[in-house]
Amino acid sequence: MSQRLRRIVFLRHGLTALQAERRYCGHLDPPLTEEGRDQVKRLRRRRVWPATVISSDLRRCLETASLLLPKVSPRIRPEWREIAFGDWEGLTWEQTGCSDPESLRHSDFCFPRGETMMRLCMRVQHGLDEIMPVAEEAVLVIAHQGSIAAAVTLLLGKPASSVWDYRLPCAGVGIVERGEAGWVLQGEWQVQREGMA
C-alpha cells in the first residue's frame, strides 16, 4: 500500500555569478560559482534526503543535484524552471528601468518578452500534480526562487500576488509538510512583503 505524500523538501540551487551580482537569471543557464558548489557540498552532511528527487532542467539545478546526491538520477522537469524574466535577464533591478517593485505583484504583470506570474503558477501546478501521487512519504525538489515560491503559494492556497513573499537563499532548504489542516511551512523560509528585485 502506497504512503501518502506528507513532505516536500524544496532546495534552491547554489549560488551563480548572476545571483552574486543580484542580476535576474531566469532562463539563462550559468553554472554554479565555486562558492555555490561549496554551499551544496556542505548540505551533504546536513540531513538524509528523500529518495525521490525532482530537478529543474537548468544547469544550476542539475549541478546542485549532482553535487548533493552524486549516485541519484533526478527526474528532470522543465515545469520547475525559474520564471522567464525575458528582456530583464542578466540585468540588475536598477538596469530594468522599472520604478515600481509592487507592480511585479500583479498576477497579469508580464516581464518584457517573458512570463506572467499566472503562467509561472500554471506551469508549476503541473509539476506539483506529477509529484502528489508518489508512493514515498517525502520528495526533494531542486529548483529556483520563483518556481519554489509559486509552489508554496499554490500549496498554501494563497493568491499569485503572494509569490514573492516566500524566499530561500541560494542553497537554502524549505520544507512544506501536510498537516491536519493542510500544508504548513518548515525550514529556512524568509516570509516578507516586498517587490521581487
**Sheet with most strands:** 6 strands, mixed
Query: Regions with pLDDT < 50 over 5+ consecutive residues?
Result: none
Q: Strands of the largest sheet, in order across it? A: 3-2-4-1-6-7
The CATH architecture can be given as 3-Layer(aba) Sandwich
- Structural category is alpha/beta
Q: How much strand?
A: 15-25%
Based on CA atoms alone, the radius of gyration comes out at 16 Å
Q: What is the total domain count? A: 1
- What are the secondary-structure elements, in order, as H or E? EHHEHEHHEHEEEE
Form type: globular
Determine the CATH superfamily. Phosphoglycerate mutase-like
Per the CATH scheme, the topology name is: Rossmann fold
Distance between the termini: 46 Å
- Give average pLDDT, whole number: 90
What's the assembly state of these chains? single chain
CATH class term: Alpha Beta
Q: Percent of residues in helical segments? A: 25-40%
- The number of helical segments is 6
Number of strands: 8
In short:
This protein has helices spanning 17-20, 34-43, 59-68, 93-96, 117-131, 145-155, and strands at residues 7-12, 52-55, 75-76, 138-143, 166-167, 173-179, 182-187, 190-191.
